[in-house]
Write a structure and sequence with these properties.
The protein is an all-alpha fold. 68% of the residues lie in helices and 0% in strands. It is built from nine helices and no strands. Helix 6 crosses helix 7 and helix 7 packs across helix 9. It is globular and about 40 Å long. The mean pLDDT is 96. The protein binds fe (ii) ion. Fe (ii) ion binds next to helix 2.
């Protein structure tokens, strides 16, 4: 059976070459683990919250994109990296996607732009990305106490598990 190509594949056709071009192998490994980890969890959280598979697809793409620039250019891994990451994603990926509506592209941009505002409650889509990001940090090493003391992470884990 031939695999069905979806809009996620269109997004990956732009994102994966960027990740593959990262020269530092360790940075590349971290990029795949964190970005695809957040993408997967964003999809799970979206479905758990009762949203459609289409929303889960958008959430997954947003998760994969949310920190991409910080792996391509580690000097941009600053407190305000979310804003740089949103602009980078727009210039290198979002503007080149053909199968998405303007509204969907705006949702993805917003999810990336706001993902660092974890102490603020954002719109329903931004919240999926924030919770997925927070949960991935914890689940990649469940024994780190620091993450278990965080309310957002606890609530996200209670929802997922
Ligand atoms: Fe992140």
């Amino acid at each position: 059976m031939e695999r069905q190509l979806t809009r996620l594949d269109e997004a990956r056709s732009l994102i994966d070459p960027i990740i593959k071009s990262i020269a530092d192998e360790e940075m590349k490994r971290c990029a795949y683990v964190h970005l695809y980890g957040v993408g997967l969890l964003a999809s799970v959280i979206a479905l758990k919250r009762g949203y459609s598979r289409k929303v889960a697809e958008l959430a997954e793409i947003t998760g994969i994109l949310h920190d991409l620039l910080t792996y391509v250019d580690p000097s941009k891994d600053t407190e305000d990296h979310a804003f740089f990451c949103a602009d980078y994603a727009r210039a290198h990926v979002l503007l080149h996607l053909k199968q998405f509506t303007r509204e969907e592209l705006d949702m993805i941009y917003s999810g990336i732009y706001h993902h660092s505002d974890k102490s603020i409650k954002g719109n329903w889509f931004d919240e999926i990305i924030k919770d997925a990001d927070a949960a991935q940090h914890c689940l990649r090493n469940p024994m780190e106490d620091y993450f278990h003391q965080n309310t957002r992470i606890q609530e996200a884990l209670n929802e997922i598990l």
